[in-house]
Write a structure and sequence with these properties.
With about 450 residues, the protein is mainly β. The chain folds into three domains: about 45 residues, no CATH class; about 250 residues, Jelly Rolls; about 130 residues, Virus Head Decoration Protein, Chain: A. It contains no helices and 32 strands. Strand 12 and strand 13 form a beta hairpin. It is elongated and about 90 Å long. About 45% of the residues are buried.
Length: about 450
């Protein structure tokens, strides 16, 4: 997904502005799951039961596992033992179809090896882990596909449609690595499950869990890819070889629906939510733009930078700000005024009831006007909206609804006793209280 930082024009307002962080030109579609890598106490994972038998129990034939993932640099530092049996289990585990102990049929899994994909399949002591070369932990969405050929055990990894690596898998006569139906186990809460986002047995910190987003997981009973291909540009649709398909579009609750329609299904999963921070959480961060058939409009004119949108901008900040020149060092929450000694500059407010009053230094603006690379002589001035401001009770306690003006303490606001006394020197209206002394007050900026 490409991101671009651009100046835009709000059509209808005629206001030039720039978002305060890179803006994704592609908008959201549905939901994804965000895992936090807690990896303990059977939480922060999705569990898909495969015994009694469900179609998601792949491994008896060729198979493909593919999904979209997004991970931030530095969040997954596990490493695997490449070219070894079960070497994948020490990476940050994305998909775990392990069994506890040797014997039986085999097992397999997908993990991150220093930010790259590792994929391993084994049957007892016969198996291998292949390690990719393409980094997928760069904060962008990536399509990942792994394939396994039943005939010769060959394993392959593809990233964003590009062939990454292939290598041998378990090449002996025992190549059925599906979960043996009805097998006895001392670990009934972990063995008969396909687990997403965590090491399924909570075996300890040597087997770290995945930290990042996961979306659009599809399991197939064929090798879908043998060479480079174009990654999907929309959510998967099931076909005859789709044995499990998870869109993660529920957006709430703990049931993860399988929408494959495969015979013998569905292979539904359960979200096991918990940890600190708790995961996996529902997220609106997804790899896809909405369908072109949607009536909603979002268009960027590359020649002009103009943006046309039918929807609403949702951001974390609650105020509108712009970069301004300052003639002295300022801090977040400082009340500032026009500096009459330095044209086009601002300074901390110097006196009570100052008619030079301009606003407050923004803490976390939701929208920045006239943005450019900030210099040391610039600061973000909140023009309107909600912002925290330094305040003092020198004019009495501040109550929600009180008008605020500048105080005798440099850079601080105080209560305005009456509008007539503060004519031309009103900073805004208090939204929180300050009983005595000095502190921070949440205000609605309405300078006039």
């Amino acid at each position: 997904m490409r991101k671009s930082l651009f100046a835009v024009i709000l059509v209808g307002l005629g206001v030039s502005l720039r978002m305060s962080s890179p803006v994704e030109v592609l908008s959201q579609s549905g939901y994804s799951l965000r895992f936090y890598g807690n990896g303990v106490n059977d939480i922060d994972r999705v569990k898909i039961q495969i015994d009694p038998h469900k179609p998601a129990d792949v491994g008896a034939t060729d198979f493909t596992i593919e999904f979209w993932m997004k991970a931030t640099p530095g969040d997954n530092t596990g490493s695997t033992t490449c070219n070894s049996n079960d070497g994948w289990i020490t990476g940050n585990i994305v998909i775990d179809r392990d069994i506890w102990g040797p014997g039986d049929y085999g097992d397999f899994g997908i993990s991150l090896n220093n930010g790259k994909i590792a994929f391993g399949v084994s049957y007892g002591n016969n198996g291998n882990t292949i390690c990719g070369n393409i980094s997928v932990t760069d904060g962008q969405w990536h399509h990942v596909a792994v394939t396994r050929a039943f005939s010769d055990g060959q394993l392959c990894i593809f990233v964003d449609g590009q062939h990454d690596v292939c290598g041998p898998g378990n090449v002996g006569s025992n190549r059925d690595v599906s979960y043996r139906d009805g097998r006895s186990t001392s670990y009934p809460d972990s063995d008969p499950f396909l687990v997403l986002g965590a090491e399924k047995h909570d075996a300890g910190p040597a087997y770290p869990s995945y930290r990042g987003w996961l979306d659009e997981l599809r399991l197939s009973n064929i090798r879908r890819y043998t060479g480079n291909f174009t990654p999907p540009s929309a959510p998967f649709t099931p076909d005859a070889n789709t044995v499990a398909l998870y869109h993660f579009d529920e957006g709430s609750g703990n049931v993860i629906n399988d929408s494959s329609g495969a015979s013998g299904g569905p292979s539904n999963g359960v979200r096991k939510y918990g940890g600190s921070p708790p995961g996996p959480e529902w997220s609106t961060d997804t790899p896809f733009a909405p369908s072109n058939n949607t009536p909603a409009l979002f268009r960027v004119e590359r020649t002009t930078g103009n943006v046309y949108a039918d929807g609403t901008f949702f951001g974390n900040g609650a105020d509108v700000a712009e970069y301004v020149l300052v003639s002295e060092p300022v801090e977040l929450g400082d009340v500032i005024e026009i500096d009459p000694e330095h044209p086009k500059h601002y300074r901390k407010a110097r006196a009570p009831y100052s008619r030079l009053l301009a606003g407050v230094i923004a803490t976390q603006p939701g929208l920045i006007l006239g943005a450019r690379e900030a210099r040391e002589s610039q600061a973000l001035l909140a023009l309107l909206g909600r912002v925290w401001a330094k305040a003092t009770t020198e004019n009495g306690p501040i109550r929600p609804g009180d008008l605020l003006t500048s105080s005798s303490k440099i850079g601080y606001a105080m209560r305005c006793p009456s509008p007539s006394e503060c004519d031309g020197a009103i900073l805004g209206k208090a939204l929180s209280a300050l009983e005595h002394g000095e502190g921070a007050v949440l205000i609605l900026v309405i300078a006039r």
